[in-house]
Every structure is written in C-alpha cells, then in structure tokens.
Amino acid sequence: MDFVEVVQVLLYAALFAVLILKLKFFRSFFVDRRLIAIVFLLRVLAGVIYALAYKFYYGGGDTFEYFDSSRLITQLFFDHDYKSFLKLTFGINTRPPDTDIRQYAFNLSYWNDMSAYFLIRFHAVASIFSFGSYYVHVVFFNWLTTLGLLYLFRFLYEQLMAKKPLVFGVVFFVPSVLFWSSGIHKDGLSLAALGPILFAASRLFIFRKPAAQSTEAGLAQKGWSVSNIILFILGSWLLTIERNYWMMLLVPSLVSWIWTVNNPRFSWLKFLIVHAIYFGVACNLNGIFPQWDFLNLIAQKQSEFMSISEGAVTVPVKNVDATFSSLLPAIPLALYNCLFQPDVLQISNLRQFMVALENVAVLFSIIISLIFMQKGFSSRQRSLLWFCFTFSISMFTVIGITVPILGALVRYKIAGELFLLMMAVILVDHLRIFVKMMPPFVPQEKS
ω into residue 342 within 30 of 0, thus cis? Predict the structure, then answer.
C-alpha cells in the first residue's frame, strides 16, 4: 500500500462519510449519523488491516486472487470491448462459457464457482472508479456492508427498543464480527445480506402492529411496498449466492419466527415443529434430489475441508458419512469447537489468544445474562430469542462438523456468534446490573 493508495483511501472514505452525514436516508436507522460515519470508517480501517494481514502473512489469499482475476475484465472496459465486459461482469456463468467470451472465461479463476466469481464481478466494476486500487475497493465494500448491517440493526432494534446500545454494540463492535466482515470476502456480504432479509420479512410477513408502536421512532409497518419486496429479494439472492448453506439454515428459523410473532402461543413448540419437519425432509432427499440432501452436503463439505487441511492448524472433528447415525454423535464436538476453540491450554500465538479471549467474553456474557435475567418477556422477545437460539445453534452445528481448520472455523462462525450474543441481550436485565454495581444513594436522616 503506497502513499498514493493511502491518499485515495482517505479521500474516498471521507467522501462516503460525508454522504452518511448529509443523506436523509441514514436518518431512518434511528442512530446519530455521526456514529454511523464512525462505524463505517472503523470498518474501512478493519478492512485495510484484514488486507494487509492476508498480504503479508498468507501471501494474499483468496481476497487478492479475486482482485487479480478481475483485472482482465476491467481491461476489456478500458479497451472499449463493452459487450465482453458486460457479459463477464453481469452475465450468467454458463458451462461451458459462451463462445465469444470463452477465451477470457478460461483465464479467470472461479468461473465455475458462482459465490467466488461474484467478488470478481464486484472488483471489475469497482476498478472503473478506483484507479485499480484494491484498498479503495475496501472502502466501496464496507459502504455496501455497512448498509446491510444497518438494516440488521434496525430489525433487532425494533424488537428490543429499550436495549438499543446493547444491540448496536453487538451488531457493529464484536471484534471478530467486525474484522472478518470488513475484509473483501464472502463473509461480509453474507452477514450484510441478513439485514435486508430480516428487515423486509418483518414488514412483509408480520400482520399485527408492533407491540410498542412509536410515532417518533417511525416504526409503523409499510407492508407490501415495492421497496420491501426488492430488499427481501436482493438479500435472499445475495445470501444464496455467497453462502447458500446460511440460507438453508435461515429458512426454518425465519419461518418459525414469522409464525410465532403472528401467533405467539407455544412459540417453543412451533419452532420445534418447523425445524423437525424442515430438517426431516432436507435429510431424506437422497432418493429424489441427492445433490440437495442435507446429509450429503455436510459429508461432502467436510471431505472438501479435510482435503485442504494438511499443514494448517486444525481442530478435531468426527467423520460423517451422510447418515443420522454418524451426524448425531458429531454435534456435541461441533458445538464445543465453535464455542471453545482454540483450546486455552494449546494457544501458540497472539491471534489464537485473541480468539480464545473473545470466546471467554462471549460465554461470560451468556452467564451474566442468565444471572441477571429479566423477569418477563414479551411475545416478540420470546420469538426473537428462539430465532437467535435456533439459527446460531444450527450454524455452529454445521460449521463445527464440516470445518476442521481453525482459521476458517473462526471466520465462518461469525453469524452464529452474533446471534448467540443477541440471545444474551434479549435475556439480560441490563438496568438491574447497573443497580447492583451502582446502588442508588439514599441520604441518612439526621438524628
């Protein structure tokens, strides 16, 4: 990163920060726009650190391979071959590629990998405005992901209005979530896609008025507006492209949440029924659609990670073979890996120490929330609690079974960690903690 790139990054970051401060759109998230600008700039800084870490410690990695591959496409634009540029950037990844772009597609990495190729598309478009600087792309990337996370924040805030600072802190300031979602990779886009999906779903599929409607907060539902439909479709499309298994795991939790918010009675039972039916069907597709059978997918993904794990720092996993009898015993170890790895007794470097420290902090937060649990929950809070629980546990289960590489495990589990911490936010009576720590002063009467 030379001096010119530093100046470019600073100028573009300042420009987008000013837009946040000036555009009325950002008022709709009920946060001071100066704070949003600070969050955006912090994410840009984290994204640059992410890039430098990968460049100097991992030789560049996937994040720079996406950028390098995009140069060929961008060059077509500057060579005025707009037809090829548009087909390579916005066209479908046909196999084999169309004849007129085949010579280019064969020279591109990840043509047959739709999720990775999406990032090549992003770099190809961004390079037109960035003078070919990867680090300027970090600014563009975090502008987009910040928007997605703002929608996630607003969705959660509308369910937990009294706990606004805690919700904001979990969405934007958890160290691992901040770091891994700020670098140009699939994780940031996937996490950002959850925001529009959940926010739009709360508008499209919740048919009762909010429990605590506020004119000042502007929380009245808009229902089936075009903007909500577009948000839901875009978020679902992006998540399916980037992390299709996130989408597969989100579906039963989201359906259960919609059902229980509209019909609150026996919410835990409804979550159980939906998940039992969903995974019961998904795990018995082998005779019909074997490529979509959930057990087959888990076994295949574990095998793929095992094949590239040589030489990496690994954690123990139980082998699965696309059967329930092998899957069920693997779940406890999978959850342990996501919650406790790296083992504090086997830490070998500072990075592992930081991850272990955050694991302790997350578990400590859960314990504190149980000790200082609030006494009553609204129906919406109960539904959200079960949503966070089922989504995070299913995420930890799949990732913990399939990913034996410690570095990948830490990166892939960020969504599960975020929603696990949201459980703590829902459970805790934060005002009670403050009273315990700083009891009110009662003046003594003079005798």
Answer: yes
On the 0-12 / 13-18 / 19+ scale of CB atoms within 10 A, 115 is middle
Rounded to whole angstroms, the Cα distance separating 430 from 423 reads: 13
Q: What pLDDT sits at residue 214?
A: 41
The residues near 138 (Cβ < 8 Å, ≥ 6 apart) are: 9, 44, 47, 48, 51, 182, 183, 184
SS3 41: helix
pLDDT attached to residue 383: 94
Residues 260 and 99: their CA atoms lie apart, in Å, by: 51
Q: What is the DSSP string of 109-130?
A: TTTT-HHHHHHHHHHHHHHHHH
Rounded-to-integer distance, Cα 368 and Cα 304, Å: 38
The pLDDT of residue 211 is 45
Q: Both tokens of residue 23?
A: 């555009």
Residue 215's pLDDT is what? 38
Distance between CA atoms of residues 139 and 10, nearest Å: 9
How does pLDDT run across 277-289, given as a tens digit for each residue?
999 998 888 878 8
Q: Which residues of the chain have pLDDT under 70?
A: 207-223, 437-447
Return the number of other C-beta atoms located less than 10 Å from residue 120's C-beta: 24
Distance, CA of 203 to CA of 228 (rounded, Å): 7
| Both tokens assigned to 203 | 């508008």
Distances (CA, A) of 412 to 187, 243, 273, 277, 398: 7, 10, 27, 26, 10
Can you give the pTM of this predicted structure?
Answer: 0.90
